[in-house]
Amino acid sequence: MTGKTPALPDEVLTHNVWEAGDNDSFAELFARHRKNVFYACRGFFSDWQAAEDATQETFLRAFKNIRSFQEGDFSHWLLRIAKNVCIDEWRRRRTETVIGGLELADRAAPRSFDSSFEMRQMAERLWQEIRSLPREQSRCLELKVEGFSYEETAARTGFTVDAVKSHLQNGRRMLWRKMEGALPQFVKG
User: Fold this and answer.
1) CA-CA distance, 10 to 139, in Å (whole number)?
2) Measuring CA to CA, how many Å separate 168 from each of 77, 89, 136, 179?
3) DSSP character for 7?
4) Per-residue model confidence as pLDDT tens digits over 83-128
5) Of the candidates 149, 106, 24, 161, which has an alpha carbon nearest to the alpha carbon of residue 7?
6) Number of CB atoms found within 10 A of residue 185's CB
7) Which CATH code of 1.10.1740.10, 1.10.760.10, 1.10.3880.10, 3.40.50.970 fits the domain covering 8-103?
8) Model's pTM, two decimal places?
9) Cβ atoms within 10 A of the Cβ of 152, count?
10) Ranges of each domain in the chain
11) Neighbours of 44 (CB within 10 A)
12) Which terminus in the chain has less CB density within 10 A, N or C?
C-alpha cells in the first residue's frame, strides 16, 4: 500500500460539497466524472467544442443544484443533467438554423434570475471577474453570455472562429478558477 487514503464515495463527497462548501470534494467529483460526461456529450455533438461547452455547463448546473441530489448513483444523476444540457443546446442551435440570417434570432432568451440579494451579489461578482479577464476573453465571454454564436462573435470582434473558441475556453477556465471560492456561497443562498 502506498499510504494513500481510500477514495471517498460520491455520496460522501456530494454531502461535503453542499453541507460544508468543500471545493476539494467537488474537484474530486469533477476529476472522477469529467471524462464520462464529456464522452456522453461528445456522443450527442459531432463538434468537440460543443461537447466541451456542454460538459462545463453540466458541472456548473450540478454544482448549483447539488442539494437536489438524493441518495443514489451520482454518475447517473450527472449524466441526466448532461443529457438535459445537450438537449437545451440542440434546441438552441436548431432555432439558429431555422431562423438563420436574422440579426437578433441567434440571441438566447434572457434567463430569469431570483431577485435575492445573494443572487444579485453573485451576478455582480461574476461580471467583475469577467471584466478583469484579458480583453479578448472578456469580450468573447460577454458576447457568448448575450447569446451570440461563435460566428457572430467572430464577426463582431474581428477574430477567427477558432480564436473565439480558444478565448472562450481560456476565459471560462480562468473565470472558474476566480469564482471557485464564491461558489459555495452561491449554492447555500
Assistant:
1) 37
2) 27, 16, 9, 16
3) P
4) 889 888 888 877 655 444 444 433 443 333 344 566 667 777 778 8
5) 24
6) 13
7) 1.10.1740.10
8) 0.48
9) 19
10) 8-103, 107-189
11) 18
12) N
